[in-house]
């Protein structure tokens, strides 16, 4: 297992992170999975044995049950070297202050997560989504206070847009608050929108990238094939609805190349999709999940899969995002003055121009 520094911090995390949205199966999360304690223990042990050192959860997953299961599975002496990441933002009650990123809700949510996780500290505490009604100054001050109290060690964000993230980083610098060391984003072969702003910001500002749902809810697992009956058990078929697919024919073109490479290498499509992500600029770790031990075992094997330059070029070409403005204009007129962050998106287009 490879370990990478998380953003500008000195914390090293495994390139694969264990996702636990499948733990619990309460409410709407039953569509994703319903892994109970005994199976969760086995899955956690499998990931730790493979070298994974980061377990990711959130208070909203099965209304706190995912955190509670992790707390029970790691009860007693905390397993050596295990890092816990959790998130807060979404509604955990019916009251008007039981959601959002206010100081009131963040402090309350963090203390509740600590109890469920049976730990004194959360290693990476992430705001789960943007809150446009709470001043960022208030949110960052609350996170800074929690860090100074020793309840959290590092802070990150998730599902922010580019301007949200840059504004937060600017406030942290101006007010000397804890800055986000990471952002957790959706990024796959099928969904490369993050390359417009979020990936370049990560390169430029030293923010680590954690990737959620790297297999597009199972669509990039290799089990889906053109003109074949869809396999049972994927999140899309279960009605989860994430991510949205706007161009089905483009998806099938990507899957065609993905499964061709996987079949030629004798590996699963999931391993190829994960290996592609691990080679993308700025990516620190990819969050893998599963209902079964077999799914985790298959995903864990991606850590050792190295794609050839030709395989990577084929995947890049079939999934390349279109150049929106101002990027097509920059390719035409600014090519000789672009920096490393710009080139994460524009380099292939300059080479072809």
What does this structure look like?
The mean pLDDT is 94. It is built from twelve helices and ten strands. The chain has helices at residues 37-49, 65-73, 103-117, 136-148, 162-175, 198-205, 248-265, 269-278, 293-300, 309-319, 327-333, 340-352; strands at 3-5, 12-14, 16-19, 54-56, 83-88, 122-127, 152-158, 180-186, 208-212, 283-288. Helix 6 crosses helix 12 (340-352) and helix 7 runs antiparallel to helix 10 (309-319). The chain has a single domain (3-321), classed as TIM Barrel (Alpha-Beta Barrel), CATH 3.20.20.100. The protein is of the alpha/beta class and 353 residues long. The longest helix has 18 residues, at 248-265. 43% of the residues are buried.
Produce the secondary structure layout.
Layout lengths: L2 E3 L6 E3 L1 E4 L17 H13 L4 E3 L8 H9 L9 E6 L14 H15 L4 E6 L8 H13 L3 E7 L3 H14 L4 E7 L11 H8 L2 E5 L35 H18 L3 H10 L4 E6 L4 H8 L8 H11 L7 H7 L6 H13 L1
Parallel strand pairs: 3-4, 3-10, 4-5, 5-6, 6-7, 7-8, 8-9, 9-10
Antiparallel strand pairs: 1-2
Helix pairs in contact: 1-2, 1-9, 2-3, 3-4, 6-12, 7-8, 7-10
Number of domains: 1
Number of helices: 12
**Quick one: biggest sheet?**
8 strands, parallel, barrel
End-to-end Cα distance: 38 Å
The gross shape turns out to be globular
CATH topology: TIM Barrel
* Major β-sheet strand ordering: 3-4-5-6-7-8-9-10
SSE run: EEEHEHEHEHEHEHEHHEHHHH
Query: CATH superfamily, please?
Result: NADP-dependent oxidoreductase domain
Strand content: 5-15%
Low-confidence stretches: none
Q: What's the gyration radius in Å? A: 20 Å
